Amino acid sequence: MIAATLNDPLLVGELGGNKPYGFHMTNSPVEISAREDVHRPMVLVSSSGTQLLLNAVGSEAIYLACFRNVSAVARHIGGRHERIAVLGAGSRGQFRREDQIGCAWVAEKLVEAGYLSETQKTSDLVSRWHNASADEIRGGKSAEYLNRSGQLKDLEFILDHIDDLDTVPSLVNGELIPVSGRFASARAAIRT
Fold first, then answer.
1. Are 121 and 101 a contacting pair, CB within 8 Å?
2. CA distance 14 to 25
3. Each residue's pLDDT tens digit, 13-31
4. How many CB atoms lie within 10 A of CB 2?
């Protein structure tokens, strides 16, 4: 495990929506943003995101986007690569609403920068979600889960932090490193 190679790592994440045994906290954005021990390296595991990254290993480059850094990622990757695949992690085998919206927003910015959509599915997603408000995620299954599990503070945090970061993390040798912008806390690592 990568944690064994780090000095006093913070184990953060979820598997199936639950904090794994021995972990310090879930991947709650509210909890992570409230951390004071930002000097500690973080090992982050999630049911869907970790698997998506592992599947992408071997690609020319891997960048991570979310609602918080849509513009920064699109700006950074646009023009750097001839072809770009925008992939959503999904959850429980479903391409959830928030994943669709996030992917559509990044893809739309890339189309605006001169890239052509190679699939009708991508064109349809961009068309469907390009004018969508982030509040649209309130009607999705992930929001239902957050409500049922008493985690609405995480949903509100997400909705209050749309496109507010200029950080572009990239997966390099199993570690997320900033390739542009600021990186407010210690580097995050992912088990590969």
1. no
2. 9
3. 988 888 999 999 999 999 9
4. 15
- What does pLDDT average to over the chain? 88
CB 45 within 8 A of CB 191: yes
What are 84-96's pLDDT values in tens digits?
999 988 777 778 8
Angle (deg, nearest 10), helices 141-148 and 152-159: 130
- Joined together, the tokens standing for residue 153 give 């503070």
Tokens at residue 160, please?
């209050």
How many alpha carbons lie under 13 Å from residue 15 in its C-beta half-sphere? 7
What φ, ψ does residue 129 adopt, rounded to 5°?
-110, 0
Cα–Cα distance between 54 and 73 in angstroms, integer? 20
User: How many degrees, rounded to 5, is the angle at CA 2 between CA 17 and CA 49?
Assistant: 35
pTM: 0.85
Written as six digits, the tokens of 135 are: 């509040």
Q: State the CB neighbour count (10 A cutoff) for residue 58.
A: 6
Residue 40 to residues 11, 12, 127: CA-CA distances in angstroms? 10, 12, 42
